[in-house]
């Protein structure tokens, strides 16, 4: 399909596969490394690249009596230069095969001659074809051509496949000739590993806070409603038997709740705790009860969790404990996790209600239509 482009030198008829100059005589010769001459129009070249515009504005040198201006594009294959020139005329003419074959060379040319559209396509095309074998070479080119997206992609590939990249010729050449880039790569890998460790530690901490938040909810649930093994003291008679006629089933967080019930039962009968000899499980239970008192919002002293009021009064009196700072951080983060859990549960309940209402409306409308 023929395309007509209007420039300051007239009309040029372009073909999607081959440039043809039917109406205007060429006034520029592009010379490649293989001494090939590629005829072109100065108006087209100048409109596509400001670097070529500056070249056009320089005084013309006469070569062998020819009136044509000569532009030398050396250091890349002749066919790559041909593809580059054709792109300046028709950007849609660049094929995937040409990108795969000459992508690196076109990236260099697009950077030197500031052809932004071609540089964007080359950055994407070269990034899709980068491999472990050529990643070091592409990385160096991306740095020279100021292609940050491609540079970052190469860095991440090296970081993920570093053991394999170390065995390539490109890496060995880099070690001998560019130690500063090698240092940058090693620092990037070290920082990436540090970030990964921080993320893992953060996820572990968040999981711990969520588990503690769930434990706080389970303690309140056990002490107010009761669960399978343990219930509030008001539901027991003088013989410690349940007065409720309805058997309590497992709750939604039964795995956590069941562990807490076993811990509470141990805490109630542990002789070591009574004798003052110390018990690891009892100490853990006391810490959980103290944490509950720190996050408990009940100010009316009606909380039914054991030792809640005692710990609150003790905390008001003793403000200078050794672990006060760490404990405050723990309390704040557990409270935050509890709030986030409550918020997500509230949203979930609202969405379930809305879905139920929509389903009922749909059924009602369908029944009317029937």
Automatic annotation (TrEMBL):
Ribonucleoprotein recorded as keyword: no
SUPFAM superfamilies: POZ domain, TAZ domain
Pathway in which this enzyme or protein is active: Protein modification; protein ubiquitination
Domain of life: Eukaryota
PROSITE patterns: BTB (PS50097)
Alphabetically ordered keywords of this record: Metal-binding, Ubl conjugation pathway, Zinc, Zinc-finger
Domain BTB: 26-97
Signal peptide: none
Alphabetized CDD domains for the sequence: BACK
PANTHER family on file: BTB/POZ AND TAZ DOMAIN-CONTAINING PROTEIN 3-RELATED (PTHR46287), BTB_POZ AND TAZ DOMAIN-CONTAINING PROTEIN 1 (PTHR46287:SF7)
The protein, known as: BTB/POZ and TAZ domain-containing protein 1-like isoform X1
The gene coding this protein: LOC104740894
